[in-house]
């Protein structure tokens, strides 16, 4: 059965963008300053988010309610002049739609009622009916309309490997013992899980694109726990499988940039530079200048300040921001050609304990200093 055409269902027409700096940087086009957004920018560090979550009653109550999901996605944009919005959702919605029973206990993180650890449970896995995730696609459309062209909207998913970690472990893990045991003892079962996950993620991201997402991102949050060789076989290969299936054009006829972020993946940039995507995200362990040399003309780079910098005083935050921008090097300024571009971000998600005024200092410095760089000052 063909997936629903969310664009037709929504009867969409969206306002033109007034700030396309993020998308131009994704496309390796020159920008007047370095754009930025923050991983987990809609979240627990904002008091207004906490108030909305309390009204919703639970995390999933928040994520599955279109009005609440729209509200919290826009909250950080009311405070800070960020250059992109990212859908408020969770990476585990796809395995939840597979019937694994996702829940969030306060302070404990996500859990699945059912785990995937043996032949029988693996055999039952299938690409879920995307209609089970309609709340996500409805939220994408609602957010895009509410943005009214202010900034682009990013859709996202977990990577096939990262989803598999949660599906096998049943929750977050410190040692990944169960998922790695399955991978090494029964690689055939792991490949089966990953194939289903990859095709599910592709269908999920395509539906987000049809609903109005203007860029899409895959979070390979746990790719860095793999050994060399295992990363290429069990993570990178299935990231490629997703990318090969993604739609290239959005509902407004524009191209849809694709971002891949592997936490701990900087050491594999020589392998990742062959990925068929526009942007590679880096965590704080990577050097942007070195990454720029390795990647060359193939991708824009995104990242990568340590989120814990945001606990320092504002003047120290500003100094660290300048260091990150300087590490990337001279910005691309020739608007007649493509060249090396940088999207500023954190090296991972923002901490819930971050003072919002420290985020304001970060945003102000990124925009101000990156303009100075382009002016040659």
How are the SSEs placed, and which strands pair?
Elements: H1 6-10, H2 21-26, H3 47-56, H4 59-63, H5 66-79, E1 85-86, H6 93-100, E2 102-105, E3 109-112, H7 119-123, H8 134-147, E4 153-158, H9 160-169, H10 177-185, H11 187-211, E5 215-220, H12 230-245, E6 258-262, H13 269-272, E7 279-281, H14 288-295, E8 300-305, H15 314-328, E9 342-346, H16 356-375
Parallel strand pairs: 1-4, 4-5, 5-6, 6-7, 7-8, 8-9
Antiparallel strand pairs: 2-3
Outline the structure in words.
The protein is of the alpha/beta class. The chain has one domain (6-375): TIM Barrel (Alpha-Beta Barrel). 46% of the residues lie in helices and 11% in strands. The chain is built from 16 helices and 9 strands. A 7-stranded parallel beta sheet has the order 1-4-5-6-7-8-9. A two-stranded antiparallel sheet has the order 2-3. Helix 15 (314-328) links the parallel strand 8 (300-305) and strand 9. Helix 9 (160-169) packs across helix 11 and helix 10 crosses helix 11. The N and C termini lie far apart (58 Å). Mean pLDDT is 95; it is low at 6-11.
Query: What composes the largest sheet?
Result: 7 strands, parallel
Q: How are the strands ordered across the major sheet?
A: 1-4-5-6-7-8-9
Tell me what the CATH architecture is: Alpha-Beta Barrel
Dominant shape? globular
Uncertain runs: 6-11
Record field, number of beta strands: 9
Helical content band = 40-55%
Order of helices and strands: HHHHHEHEEHHEHHHEHEHEHEHEH
Number of domains: 1
Write a concise keyword list for the protein shown above.
377 residues; TIM Barrel; two-stranded antiparallel ribbon; seven-stranded parallel beta sheet; 16 helices; alpha/beta
